[in-house]
Design a protein that fits this description.
The complex is a heterodimer of chains A (about 400) and B (about 80). Chain A has helices at about 20-30, 35-40, 65, 70-85, 90-95, 110-120, 130-135, 140-150, 165-175, 195-200, 240-245, 275-285, 305-320, 330, 340-355, and strands at about 5-15, 35, 50, 100-105, 155-160, 185-190, 230-240, 255-260, 295, 325, 355, 375, 380, 385-390, 395-405. Chain A has about 400 residues and is of the alpha/beta class. In chain A, α4 packs across α8. Classes of the chains: A alpha/beta (about 400), B mainly alpha (about 80). At the A-B interface, α3 of A face α2 of B.
């Protein structure tokens, strides 16, 4: 069995457009949430959202590469460029080694809406043009990036709702561990636009604390009233330890555990047992006792039911060992398809820079959440191992365990 | 009706701005596929661009004999005249 390490990381998030900016935001407890008047004007219940500038890629990518790339693909391109750069992977390496891509993505709403709008208006499919088909498929990110970077290895998208990116990393880890690939570009992308979140807003799941956008996402707090949709992209280069050592690559962490489960119950309501089984499976895979986990980056999205159930799951699995717990979604909002990868990056930044980012806005934990060992403010702590949870609609659960590389 | 020189200028401008072909490549004898790199997907976009700018729909069967940029100018000019 190969050991699997992280040799590259890149991020384009509401907390910053690269690792350095994101680390600064995590340490300062900065929120990336705004009130978007457009959403209110078109009938959203909640106009709160993460916010991000669209990357300008004209002059960087040729027209054919840009035409099929939706906005979340643009975010993913920028994040992947940063990850490849700090992994010291260049075109010559990509030409020589079969590098794969497994990306998490579960929607591409705008191109679907726009292309059908054109058809309705022009009544001729030939007026849709060549780009929308490649922009509108769920596999748009892996499809486009594999062409842009001329990849020759495994190539597909994983759609597992808000656990998509975490499962992408988990599957990438298993493939490398089995010796089927040496290097895989893993990650997750999430579009930010009203079209992709309108039907989610209809479920009354979003916070309506519109008077205080930066205080709206408040996981585990007794006054939380819902999540805030957000997005961006995060790329992680997973590599076999042998390959990383051979190249002299920087190692940001070692992936040692992946656990997964399905709740088998309600389509949207999370439960306690499913996440607990995913965490237990990840611990077993890592060969670790619960007491060895020092920090949990919780899924906690700031919904009343979800956070309480996760708190119960964590209490059930970790008992009295009480690892530190925080939810970076308090700052980012819910990065959905991207979150499983971005939260590994946020946690690796913490582990490699000896701090733990807090759950901002957590003032008074509810009765169940109070059982956890919350990080209320920036804490300096030498983390060696952490677990990251991601859960999604349909009751899909993923837990990943990463430890500091110790040779 | 647009004059031939106006049409050529307009087509060149669209190829430069919309298809992002370098101006220096736009010689009348240049072959659309071989020299200008216009592939089957670019032709799908050209269909939209021509309809939006000249008000008619290109027909693929009529494009069979269009090899060079000059052929393309002639085709567009002819279609404008017959429309």
């Amino acid at each position: 069995m190969n050991r699997v390490v992280i040799t590259g990381m890149g991020i384009y998030s509401v907390l910053g457009k690269n690792l350095s900016e994101v680390q600064d935001s995590l340490m300062k407890g900065r929120s990336g949430i705004i009130f978007d008047p457009l959403r209110k004007a078109i009938g959203f219940r909640s106009a709160l959202t993460g916010t991000l500038d669209r990357p300008v890629l004209k002059g960087i990518l040729d027209r054919r590469m840009r035409v099929g790339l939706p906005v979340q693909g643009e975010y993913a391109y920028v994040a992947t460029m940063e990850a490849l750069k700090n992994a010291f992977i260049d075109e010559a390496f990509l030409d020589k080694i079969n590098v794969g891509i497994l990306y998490g993505n579960d929607s591409s709403a705008v191109p679907v809406v726009e292309s059908v709008d054109i058809l309705r208006q022009k009544k001729d499919t030939m007026m849709i043009g060549s780009g929308y088909i490649f922009q509108s498929m769920n596999s748009t990110v892996s499809m486009n990036l594999s062409v842009i970077f001329k990849l020759k290895g495994i190539n597909f998208t994983i759609s597992g709702a808000c656990a998509s990116a975490s499962h992408a990393l988990g599957i990438g880890y298993l493939l490398i561990r089995q010796g089927l690939q040496d290097v895989i570009i893993c990650g997750g992308a999430q579009e930010i636009n009203p079209e992709s979140t309108a039907s989610f807003d209809a479920l009354n799941a979003f916070s309506i604390r519109e008077s205080e956008p930066t205080k709206a996402s408040r996981p585990f707090d007794r006054n939380r009233d819902g999540l805030v949709p957000s997005g961006g992209a995060a790329t992680i280069i997973l590599e076999s330890l042998d390959s990383a050592l051979r190249r002299g690559a920087t190692i940001f962490g070692e992936m040692i555990g992946y656990g997964f489960s399905s709740n088998g119950e309600h389509i949207s309501l999370p439960n306690v047992d499913g996440p607990a089984r995913a965490m237990e499976m990840a611990l077993k895979d890592a060969g670790m006792k619960p007491s060895e986990i020092e920090y949990i980056n919780a899924h906690a999205t700031s919904t009343p039911a979800g956070d309480s159930n996760e708190a119960m799951s964590i209490s059930q699995v970790f008992g009295e060992s009480k690892p530190l717990v925080s939810s970076t979604k308090s700052m980012t909002g819910h990065e959905m398809w991207m979150g499983g990868a971005s939260e590994i990056i946020y946690s690796c930044l913490m582990m490699n820079n000896s701090f733990v980012a807090p759950t901002i806005n957590l003032e008074n934990p509810d009765e169940i959440s109070a059982r956890l060992n919350h990080v209320f403010s920036l804490t300096y702590n030498d983390l060696h191992v952490f677990l990251s949870n991601s859960f999604g609609f349909g009751g899909t659960n993923s837990s990943l365990i990463i430890r500091k590389f110790d040779g | 009706m647009m004059q031939q020189q106006e049409i050529i200028k307009k087509i060149n401008q669209l190829l430069i701005e919309e298809i992002e072909i370098d101006e220096s490549q736009l010689s009348p004898t240049a072959e659309l596929k071989k020299d200008l790199g216009i592939d089957s997907l670019d032709f799908v976009d050209l269909f939209v661009i021509i309809e939006n700018n000249f008000g008619f729909k290109m027909k693929s069967e009529e494009m069979a004999d269009v090899k060079t940029l000059q052929d393309f100018y002639n085709y567009i000019y002819k279609r404008i005249q017959t429309n």
